[in-house]
């Protein structure tokens, strides 16, 4: 591993962490989620306590992982990995390893910081509160035209995305059991800056949001797409895992009628022809929720891996260009 990465991981471990974190008991869940967890995620209520104990023992013995031991948090990884212990170990290791080498995303996660708060208030990532059925995938709205490239860069948007994701992982049982469906609204904007990414960073971001994240994707729906969008979509498909490429991926063009075949008006904000009212109310609610969880989010900065203590194979060792620079995507101009 490069000297730069070693320095970053050492810095991560220099931040003090309370040894006595508040233990959050596992929440009871509705019967419909119990059935789904049992049928689709191999969850057996009688074994969960034993499985969580095994994970905590493994993390303590790993030596290189400095992570959360809260059972509710770890249960999210069990569910994400369908209670496969080997997959849980791999995902947790990847989760903390990739975060340790993304300081531009994982540092300064204070929602009261004026700059961070300005990015939060843009409302690029907006979890929506309703689904048709209580065991449907939760809906995440991503508003491409809310991203003001003159104010911040893509890593800043990803920072807020991970802050929201950390709270969902801890608090939202429906999300962890049923997964999430993303509606990506590009808003007819000529947002060429959205595609001016450093390829090395974009590769890390794709690992963070796919291999490392316990938030399971159930589909991607693009609305208000610009001309030649298929070219851009093919680029991003190339960064997806094979599993995510097999998910539902639909480009609805500018047709709200097409979008409503998948998401009825009752679960959408007014901007997408829905009945939930303006999306700004959910942006405001999440701004306050992040502020309310400020201490939790800041504590995340102290978690990660120490490569000097690792006795196993780095799960990212085979990822090409992960720690190098590989240029940028050229800007794609759209009408």
UniProtKB/TrEMBL annotation:
Domain of life where this protein originates: Eukaryota
InterPro entries membership: CRAL-TRIO_dom, CRAL-TRIO_dom_sf, CRAL/TRIO_N_dom_sf
SUPFAM superfamilies with a match to the protein in the record: CRAL/TRIO domain (SSF52087), CRAL/TRIO N-terminal domain (SSF46938)
Coiled-coil segments: none
PROSITE patterns for this protein: CRAL_TRIO (PS50191)
Pfam family, one: CRAL_TRIO
GO terms assigned for molecular function: phosphatidylinositol bisphosphate binding
One Gene Ontology CC term in the entry: membrane
Domain CRAL-TRIO: 112-280
PANTHER family (alphabetical): ALPHA-TOCOPHEROL TRANSFER PROTEIN-RELATED (PTHR10174), CRAL-TRIO DOMAIN-CONTAINING PROTEIN-RELATED (PTHR10174:SF216)
Protein name: CRAL-TRIO domain-containing protein
Organism of derivation: Anopheles culicifacies
Organismal lineage: Eukaryota, Metazoa, Ecdysozoa, Arthropoda, Hexapoda
């Amino acid at each position: 591993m490069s000297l730069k990465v070693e320095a970053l991981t050492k810095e991560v471990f220099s931040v003090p962490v309370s040894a006595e974190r508040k233990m959050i008991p596992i929440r009871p869940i509705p019967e419909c989620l119990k059935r789904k967890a049992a049928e689709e995620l191999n969850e057996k209520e009688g074994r969960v306590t034993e499985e969580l104990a095994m994970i905590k023992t493994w993390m303590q013995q790993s030596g290189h992982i400095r992570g959360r031991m809260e059972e509710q948090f770890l249960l999210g990884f069990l569910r994400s990995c369908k209670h496969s212990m080997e997959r849980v170990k791999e995902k947790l290791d990847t989760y903390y390893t990739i975060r340790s080498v993304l300081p531009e995303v994982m540092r300064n996660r204070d929602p009261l910081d004026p700059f961070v708060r300005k990015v939060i208030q843009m409302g690029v990532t907006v979890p929506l509160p309703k689904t048709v059925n209580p065991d449907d995938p939760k809906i995440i709205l991503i508003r491409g035209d809310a991203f003001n490239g003159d104010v911040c860069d893509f890593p800043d948007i990803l920072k807020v995305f991970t802050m929201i994701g950390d709270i969902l992982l801890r608090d939202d049982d429906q999300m962890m059991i049923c997964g999430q469906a993303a509606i990506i609204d590009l808003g007819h904007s000529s947002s060429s800056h959205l595609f001016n990414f450093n390829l090395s960073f974009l590769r890390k971001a794709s690992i963070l949001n796919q291999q490392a994240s316990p938030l399971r994707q159930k589909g991607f729906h693009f609305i208000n797409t610009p001309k030649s969008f298929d070219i851009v979509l093919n680029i991003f498909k190339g960064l997806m895992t094979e599993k995510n490429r097999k998910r539902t991926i639909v480009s609805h063009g500018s047709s709200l009628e097409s979008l409503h075949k998948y998401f009825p008006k009752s679960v959408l904000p007014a901007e997408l022809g829905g009945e939930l009212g303006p999306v700004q109310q959910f942006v405001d609610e999440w701004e306050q929720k992040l502020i309310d969880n400020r201490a939790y989010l800041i504590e995340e900065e102290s978690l990660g891996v120490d490569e000097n203590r690792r006795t196993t194979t780095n799960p990212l060792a085979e990822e090409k260009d992960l720690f190098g620079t590989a240029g940028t995507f050229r800007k794609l101009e759209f009408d």
